[in-house]
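Training component of the fellowship. As part of building independent skills, the fellow (R.M.) carried out the full modelling exercise for a liganded target. The chosen ligand was adenine. The inputs are recorded below so that the supervisory panel can assess the work.
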Amino acid sequence: MRIDVVSIFPEYLDPLRMALLGRAIDRGILAVDVHDLRDWTHDVHRAVDDSPYGGGPGMVMKPQVWGPCLDDVCPDDAVLVVPTPAGEPFTQRVAEELRNESHLVFACGRYEGIDQRVVDDVARRGRVRELSIGDYVLIGGEVAAIAMIESVVRLIDGVLGNAASHQQDSFSDGLLEGPSYTRPEHWRGLSVPPVLLGGDHAAITRWRHEQSLARTRARRPDLLDETGTAARRPTPPSS
Ligand code: ADE
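Fellow's submitted model of the complex:
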């Protein structure tokens, strides 16, 4: 997969080269390129924003800068992702859709966002997803882009050491993941649940499912349907 990110703070994206993502880059599974939006400005101030039509607070990012930038960076067969609190929710399902793409381009806005015509223009020739990582407002799209990129890239075959680990994630079966334990068996007066020590794999699977359901009921009842089971059907593993 190829990922391009455009930002006025390219160094904000440095974490993309660390840990598992860095290893995926080293192994040729992933190519990441980060671009400074100001490279597409032509004025002495390298201005990327202007005051909004219609008035109001804040600044809007200029179409005359973003347009030529995306002409260069975002070909018609890529998916343009625009992180914005006004986007559709970014969920595990969206991550699973995006992991099948060969090229993603992230356009990180700051201020009050990017002139809408930039998105509308790319949508005339390609695919655009305006996505929000949650019901809160960040200062810019960079942190949201990193969150989305991590969750997409870890689903690509070969990125995680053990493919089963993402098939057991919270959300992959529509439920939250239950608790996990490792050695020692007793620690600060707290013990590992005995069922995990017994080696009865059917009992362990049953117990884990009950824990998932109980946790989901307590923390995220919105994920359950009227019958108390996961509202979201699991997606089959990729071929
Ligand atoms: N930019 C600012 N806030 C955001 C959010 N919640 N999700 C995605 N992009 C954002």
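The panel noted the following from the submitted structure. The pocket of adenine is lined by residues 83-85, 132-134, 136-138, 141, 144 (CB under 6 Å). The two ends are 16 Å apart (CA to CA).
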